[in-house]
Amino acid sequence: MVKLIQQTIRCPACGQPYNGEIRTIIDAGQDPQGKQMLIAGQLNVQQCPHCGSTTRAAAPILYHDADKELLISFVPMELNMPRDEQDRVIGSMLNELTASIPKEQFRAYMFKPRSALTMQGLVNQILEADGIDPQKVEEQRKRLQLVQMFLDASSVEAIQALAKEFDEQIDESFFQTLSMFGQRMVEEGQMQIAQRVGAIQQILLNETTYGKGLQEEMARSEAAVKE
């Protein structure tokens, strides 16, 4: 099941409130995109329509993977939710999840979810169950963090300054990550962000060592074709 709820979010940058759509229940079998967003550190990341800044909305999460017999709950510490309230909220989410599962598919693990103290702890448990190298995921997470830094930059000059500062990290893998992020924004209908990603790509092509090398390679290829 894909569980989306409306939540009022107050932008930490400009202080303005706005409505955001967030995921609270992630069933890996039915919502693989939600799982990938969680692992990449992009789950419930919202962009303020007033100032363009991004933030991650804090919300309880229930993660389920039937194939791995994995059920994990996570309540962000910043919610300051008392233990009995946490139990009530997770219990309600668990009831909602199991209501969509046929009784013959019930397993013992579904009656007592594991818990994660941090978002990274939740991700690590998922990766361990999937047999994925945490180092590769960490590298991708850092690339996505850098993408977010470029998106948060307030001007072309700020983007250029970041490009200079992180020049060594802007390589083929980073450009692939940036392109995939832009494509995902198109698929989700967030055209304003997608257009901003395109503008950032063009600046990085002109300002970074890898980008300049890529343009030179493309120019040589075009010249060879014309010959």
Write the layout of secondary structure elements.
Blueprint: E1 2-10, E2 17-27, H1 32-39, E3 45-47, E4 54-56, E5 61-65, E6 70-74, H2 83-98, E7 114-116, H3 119-130, H4 134-152, H5 156-165, H6 172-187, H7 191-207, H8 209-226
Parallel strand pairs: 2-5, 6-7
Antiparallel strand pairs: 1-2, 3-4, 5-6
Account of the 3D structure:
The chain has 227 residues and is α/β, with parallel strands linked by helices. The protein folds into 2 domains: 1-131, no CATH class; 133-227. It is 51% helix and 17% strand. The chain has 8 helices and 7 strands; from the N terminus they run ββαββββαβαααααα. It has helices at 32-39, 83-98, 119-130, 134-152, 156-165, 172-187, 191-207, 209-226, and strands spanning 2-10, 17-27, 45-47, 54-56, 61-65, 70-74, 114-116. The chain has a 5-stranded mixed β-sheet with strand order 1-2-5-6-7, sandwiched between helices. It has a two-stranded antiparallel ribbon with strand order 3-4. Helix 4 packs across helix 6 (172-187), helix 5 (156-165) packs across helix 7 (191-207) and helix 7 packs across helix 8. The longest helix has 19 residues, at 134-152. The relative contact order is 0.09.
Any idea how many domains? 2
SS-based structural class?
Answer: alpha/beta
Uncertain residue segments: none
Strand order of the largest sheet: 1-2-5-6-7
Radius of gyration from the alpha-carbon trace, in angstroms: 21 Å
Distance between the termini: 56 Å
Number of strand segments: 7
String of helices and strands: EEHEEEEHEHHHHHH
Number of helices: 8
Percentage beta strand: 15-25%
General shape:
globular
